[in-house]
Amino acid sequence: MTRYFNTEGLCIPEEHYMVRLDDRLEKIKRLYVKRGKYFVINRGRQYGKTTTLRALKEYLKDEYLVVSLDFQGISTEEYRDEYTFTRAFMRMFAERFKRQETTAGDKFKEFLDGQEQRKTLSELFTCLSGICAACSRPIVLMIDEVDSASNNQVFIDFLAQLRGYYLEREKRPIFHSVILAGVYDIKNLKLKIRSNEEHQYNSPWNIAADFKVSMSFSATQITDMLEEYEADYRTGMDITAVAEEIYQYTSGYPYLVSAICKCLDEDIPDRRGFEDDSNVWNKEGIAEAVKLLLNARVPLFGSMMRHVGEYSELKKMLYVILFQGERIAYNPDNKAIELACMFGYAVNDNGSVRIANRIFETRLYNFFLSEEELSSAISRAAKRDGSLFISNGTLDMDKVLEKFVEYFTDIYGENDEKFVETYGRKFFLLYLKPIINGRGNYYIEAQTRDVRRTDVIVDYAGEQFIVEMKIWHGNEYNERGEQQLTEYLDYYHQRKGYLLSFNFNKQKETGVRIVTVGDKVIVEAVV
Asked: Under a CB-based contact definition with an 8 Å cutoff, are residues 187 and 153 in contact?
């Protein structure tokens, strides 16, 4: 069977190109399973949780009896009360258990016999304790998609029973280790059921160990995966460079890595300019794949937009990070921060909240900009003059800055300093986006984004433009900015760069000029 890059659920090594999980599995076994820990793997959507559980089951099977359940297999009706839930749970448990172990069969028969007999959760756990005592190997229980149970009190009661047996497992046999997997951690399951503030964090799962194993892919892991692909297809790609470029866009988010690779393998070769494999698996091909992905309707982005719409605190925080360059200190007790990190949209970066990767960041930029695009005067101006900026398929960035200065001065020139400082960068992106839409990408360089400075990287038709946006703080600061930009141009192997300054000096001279710094040419625009 020919292997391929998979983005639709479970990845299987025999069928799909995938990152090797051996190191991750060994770490989970050593730090958690062997020590008898109960823990939760809670990560964002399509983060490889199900694939990891499947691989872990195989990894543990010689030493443990692993019972792997998916709570999506329990219907809404079966959560009606503890009696319907216990029967559904034990039926599913018995099916998985009997495939591996013939002992303790009488316990199942006793419990399941008698269709009309109603069993409580206490009776369920008495049965499970007996099964664990009779089993020839320690039992590891895995439950995937616990989110599907998140609005059901009966599941919270189930967790409370697990907790009680865990605390007394020296007296009453029970599972050696329990692994739950889902987006929400158990604390938030409780939060979704009880609206009273007093009970929001009263979780029955406070015995769970913190799960600290990274689920992201490293550039090295992506390299190993691409080596397997290259061995099959001989594209001639620079594997290390391609892996690093993919990592730069995705920060190793598993779905995004696979989606870009799938696009490069299946979609890009049919597009104009990418007919030769040697032109696909490179920086230009990856940029094209990212452009397609950013415009695709996929469940992961759908979840992101739904969450942004549902949680106003989350939306506000993401907005100020993106457009105002605010550095927000990481605090796990802040609801907006907790949600952003739990969903996988943000991470704790040395004590500050950072958007998790370039693709999420750009998708969020596009979302916020689209909310204002129809009502934005400067965006309408860009659409009206779009033909001025493209010549023979090439973007004229000099003209883009020249016209932006003209329109910005006319439309927003009378606004106060605070207004411009807060919204200036957004206005440039509102102006830029319609111009490059359909042919180009842009992203914000996270390392240089703060209150005073932001670098926008624009890719258009295979050409790259570096635009630094900053707040004017005098000539000396401006000269330092020029020097920083030249260093940045060296990093990107560019000779020409662009500097857009928002100047609040009453005596300022708006306009565009060209300066030379060393061997670099800088187009400076002041508004």
From this structure: no
